[in-house]
TrEMBL record:
Protein name, entry field: PucR family transcriptional regulator
Similarity comment text for this entry: Belongs to the CdaR family.
Pfam family, one: GGDEF_2
Residue ranges of every copy of the CdaR GGDEF-like domain listed in the record: 166-289
Residue ranges of every copy of the PucR C-terminal helix-turn-helix domain listed in the record: 336-393
Xref: Gene3D superfamilies: PucR C-terminal helix-turn-helix domain (1.10.10.2840)
Taxon lineage: Bacteria, Bacillati, Actinomycetota, Actinomycetes, Pseudonocardiales
InterPro entries, A to Z: CdaR-like_regulators, CdaR_GGDEF, PucR_C-HTH_dom, PucR_C-HTH_sf
Length: 404
């Protein structure tokens, strides 16, 4: 049953209006004593809470006069607060503050009544008004979350697009910081097909998997392509897999499951978001070239696609092949370059290679082990032998053009 208009005397209403400042101050004092985090809030945000409390008391008095206006009045209380207040106070904290405010109201408002009948009416009114305030606070936070979510999504897309384009470091980092990204975290760019035509579904798939991994992500859907920036190391095995209770899966394997069908390429893991444009460039180059390796694993590292990328005309891949394989072999002693070159030319037949080099087969084995240690590529592995062959060819072409 609602509070009837006129059920509270004009004298009591006047007392309530005069006590609004006292009630608001008592409410803030109670919040200070019960919540340490409240006292650490900036002064302007605390002043905003005081304004809300004072408006709440005034709204309560107006509500007693006309309870049909309750929802509008309580909503106006929250609308008067600064828009960024919800960034300082969570919905859970707001509920706690409302609870404390109601305790103060229940303890002090009935004392302002002219008689026992009005005291009972005020006690019931405080409870009903508190319910209205709680509902209004939830609505206010829902609206703020919706608006903030739309803004964050646009800002996140700008950050990822900037990484792909290689934008200025300062602008990119400031935007990422606004999204809560740790500037010191390692970053890996992963690209592939989106799993759905529905953007919210894509966001849910990526974020839910990242949340289970305890990793921060930035993502953007660019046409049919999904670009994800993953924080932290990517080759670590998950805890349960290290104990042997499941097949080995890395963090990168897990996040790959959020992509649609088709290849998924991961760029190199870089030290921070400021260097993520290098990871993005390599990942996108690999995505364009991965069609040249039908048996490529999923996910595949961009560094494992160096031959295909070089054949597709990526100068960065050519430089990496020269820097990591061709040049170290040429500068090494012990005829390593001649040995691996001959071994590849004879189709990997050890004895034939040894005969052409006029050495013992064990000497060839020793030299090939040194090649593997120096380049990370085993000439006996079919894939690595392709990488070595392309790297040597690229190195000769680069030397002929005077590039090194």
């Amino acid at each position: 049953m609602g509070v009837r208009a006129g059920a509270v005397s004009a004298k009591t209403l006047a007392e309530l209006e005069r006590a609004s400042g006292k009630l608001a101050s008592a409410t803030l004092a109670a919040m200070d004593s019960q919540f340490p985090w409240f006292s650490r809030m900036p002064a302007d945000q605390r002043a905003s809470v005081l304004l809300i409390a004072q408006s709440g008391v005034a709204g309560f008095t107006a509500w007693l006069k006309d309870d049909t206006a309750s929802l509008r009045l309580t909503t106006d209380v929250f609308r008067s607060a600064p828009r960024d207040l919800s960034r300082w106070i969570s919905l859970r904290q707001t509920v706690e503050l409302v609870r404390v405010a109601l305790q103060v109201f229940e303890g002090q408002v009935p004392d302002l009544a002219a008689d026992e009948q009005e005291r009972a009416i005020l006690g019931e009114a405080v409870l009903r008004y508190g319910r209205e305030v709680a509902f209004a606070s939830a609505m206010s936070y829902a609206s703020a979350a919706e608006a903030r979510g739309a803004w964050d999504a646009r800002l996140e897309a700008l950050v990822v697009d900037g990484i792909v384009r290689g934008d200025a470091e300062e602008a990119l980092l400031s935007r990422a910081a606004a999204l809560g990204w740790d500037p010191a975290a390692e970053a890996t760019v992963v690209v592939g097909n989106r799993p759905s035509d529905d953007p919210p579904t894509v966001v849910y798939e990526v974020r839910s998997r990242a949340a289970r991994l305890g990793r921060a992500v930035l993502l953007s859907v660019q046409g049919s392509r999904l670009v994800v920036v993953l924080a932290g190391p990517t080759d670590d095995l998950l805890g349960e897999e290290r104990r042997g209770r499941a097949p080995s899966k890395t963090v990168l394997d897990r996040i790959t499951a959020a992509f649609g069908e088709g290849p998924v390429v991961a760029g190199p893991t870089v030290a921070s978001l400021a260097e993520a444009h290098r990871s993005a460039a390599d990942a996108l180059s690999g995505l364009r070239a991965v069609v040249g390796w039908p048996a490529a694993p999923r996910p595949v590292r961009s560094t494992d696609l160096l031959p295909e990328r070089a054949l597709a005309g990526d100068p960065e891949a050519e430089w990496q092949l020269v820097d990591r394989i061709a040049r170290p072999l040429e500068e090494a002693t012990g005829s390593l370059l001649e040995t691996v070159d001959t071994y590849l030319e004879v189709g990997g037949v050890l004895e034939t290679c040894a005969r052409q080099l006029f050495v013992h087969p064990n000497t060839v084995r020793y030299r090939l082990r040194r090649v593997a240690e120096l380049t990370g590529r085993n000439a006996n592995d079919p894939r690595d032998s392709l990488v070595l062959r392309v790297a040597l060819a690229v190195g000769r072409l680069a030397r002929a053009r005077g590039l090194w």
